[in-house]
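Ops channel
N.P.: pipeline sanity check, posting one input/output pair.
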């Protein structure tokens, strides 16, 4: 592999504590190395430019059956984003639900190199891995969903943590999954009965268990195993006015549980797309409760969150929170798809338009930014849009612009039809804080990597880490307009993935050598769990156990995280 020396760039790296100093970054054999270790490198002059590690996205919906439903369901989405074949690039299309090819290329153009698929139905793990295999450049992993799984509900009803952990370990191996994902715990199973769980103590029909028991039990099982990532939750009551109290109640379920991981994380819960869970008030007169949410986050270091920022675009919502999607189609009267996955989960897909002329959408926009601007620790607060639910991931640079520029936020306020009402219902207009690029690097690089237990590979520019390096044509020491931020970070000048230059002079230069990340969790032999699995497959599943497991040919260049809970 070629050696490279990226010279004189303004480096922003929380791992090394570099806050914009001019420095050189050396690459050899796919790793960051000391500059003295390269003898005859290719030199990239980064003078006057910004240099960061490759971005890490902890939560996005980029592969799997509901994503593919979204593509088939919305042919009109392709009108926004068709791009013909160009040079080394393959043909690509789509806007809010891009093709696999465009997903890889567009993330790379933003300087991202690692992206996690946030909700994988275990029954469709093979499909999910096929899509990830087809996505160029990016290292990827996927989170199997557990919060409405019949095995989990039955074990946790009896507080059988060891059995739950053994089942999680088996399912991670079978699906080649990365983490424990929970979506609307108990509520999605209730949806099979036309019901929902409206608070953490609302019982799940038939199973005689509550969301609180599900969440707490899965946290305990996650820590029993010592998995690299904490339990990753989409709590009950997403998008419901007044739901901030459910969010706080869910946060509190993590209290008193100590993290048990050899991978560097310090948290036991990751709460995703918190913007959708930070609402006060009633009906369309809902209001921001971001200060209350961030008061808790800032004073409890055992949780991480991501934002779920609204980008004010037309998009395609999709989630394993089936009852929410039915509620959404009743609000906007647009087309709706619903799917039930046997014994495991459910999903819905509904198009949505976030408009600056809609007060509710404007309030949502404010809340997402407030969560970030009120944060005290950006290694625990991460930038996302819950792609594509609050907007497409290609808007991350636009969110950066809003977070870094009070002027950009004022310009957006001036575009709101109901500006005064929005200001009354939110706190953003009174916040003058502007984030800097070091804080952006914390929330898009170092923080997500550490949360995922991957700080030994990604998120920084220290020698020994993967040579995932982005160079942006942006000089932070010269005057710039807000739009310059969005322009620069939407179109990296150079990007290296594991030492391979995948973007050169703003153009895709290689399809890379991507990897699939998965966790091989070992537990003591548990005959009861395997008997239960075999029995339920024979009784309920429409596929055989032999046709369920993801086998090697689905995984390009797999990277296995070994976890041993037998010791």
């Amino acid at each position: 592999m070629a050696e490279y020396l990226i010279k004189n760039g303004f480096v922003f790296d929380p791992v090394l504590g570099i806050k914009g100093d001019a420095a050189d970054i050396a690459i050899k054999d796919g790793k960051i190395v000391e500059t003295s270790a390269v003898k005859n490198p290719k030199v990239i002059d980064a003078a006057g430019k910004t240099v960061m590690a490759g971005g890490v996205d902890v939560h996005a919906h980029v592969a799997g059956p509901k994503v593919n439903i979204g593509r088939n369901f919305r042919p009109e989405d392709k009108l926004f984003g068709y791009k013909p074949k160009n040079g080394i690039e393959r043909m690509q299309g789509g806007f809010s639900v891009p093709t696999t090819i465009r997903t890889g290329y567009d993330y790379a153009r933003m300087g991202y190199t690692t992206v996690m698929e946030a909700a994988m139905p275990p029954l469709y793990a093979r499909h999910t891995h096929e899509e990830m295999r087809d996505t160029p450049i990016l290292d990827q992993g996927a989170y199997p969903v557990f919060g409405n799984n019949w095995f989990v509900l039955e074990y946790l009803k009896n507080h059988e943590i060891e059995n739950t952990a053994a089942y999680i370990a088996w399912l991670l191996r079978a699906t080649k999954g990365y983490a424990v994902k929970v979506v609307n715990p108990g509520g999605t199973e209730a949806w099979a009965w036309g019901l929902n769980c409206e608070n953490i103590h609302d019982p799940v029909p038939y199973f005689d268990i509550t969301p609180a028991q599900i969440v707490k039990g899965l946290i305990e099982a996650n820590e029993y195993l010592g998995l690299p990532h904490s339990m990753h939750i989409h709590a009950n009551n997403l998008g419901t006015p007044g739901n901030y109290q459910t969010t706080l109640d869910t946060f509190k379920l993590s209290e008193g549980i100590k993290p048990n991981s050899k991978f560097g994380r310090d948290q036991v819960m990751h709460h995703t797309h918190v913007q959708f869970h930070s609402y006060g008030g009633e009906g369309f007169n809902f209001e921001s409760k971001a200060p209350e949410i961030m008061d808790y986050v800032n004073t409890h270091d055992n949780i991480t969150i991501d934002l779920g920022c609204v980008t004010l675009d037309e998009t395609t919502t999709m989630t394993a929170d089936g009852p929410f999607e039915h509620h959404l189609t009743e609000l906007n009267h647009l087309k709706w798809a619903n799917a039930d996955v046997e014994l495991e989960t459910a999903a819905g897909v509904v198009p949505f338009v976030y408009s600056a002329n809609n007060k509710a959408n404007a309030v949502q926009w404010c809340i997402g930014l407030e969560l970030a601007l009120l944060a005290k620790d950006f290694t625990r607060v991460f930038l996302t849009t819950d792609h594509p639910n609050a907007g497409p991931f290609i808007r991350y640079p636009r969110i950066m612009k809003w977070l870094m520029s009070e002027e950009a936020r004022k310009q957006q306020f001036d575009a709101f039809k109901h500006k005064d009402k929005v200001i009354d219902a939110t706190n953003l207009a009174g916040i003058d804080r502007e984030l800097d690029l070091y804080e952006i690097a914390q929330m898009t690089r170092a923080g997500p990597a550490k949360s995922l237990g991957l700080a030994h590979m990604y998120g920084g520019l220290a020698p020994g880490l993967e040579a995932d390096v982005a160079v942006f044509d942006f000089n932070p020491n010269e005057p710039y307009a807000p739009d310059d931020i969005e322009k620069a970070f939407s179109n990296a000048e150079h990007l290296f993935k594991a030492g391979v230059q995948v973007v050169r002079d703003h153009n895709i230069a290689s399809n890379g050598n991507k990897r699939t990340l998965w966790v091989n969790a070992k537990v003591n032999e548990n005959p009861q769990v395997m008997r239960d699995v075999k029995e339920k497959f024979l009784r309920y599943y429409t596929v055989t156990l032999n046709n369920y497991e993801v086998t090697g040919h689905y995984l390009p260049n797999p990277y296995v995280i070994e976890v041993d809970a037998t010791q």
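N.P.: looks fine end to end. The chain has two domains: 4-52+459-508, 55-451.
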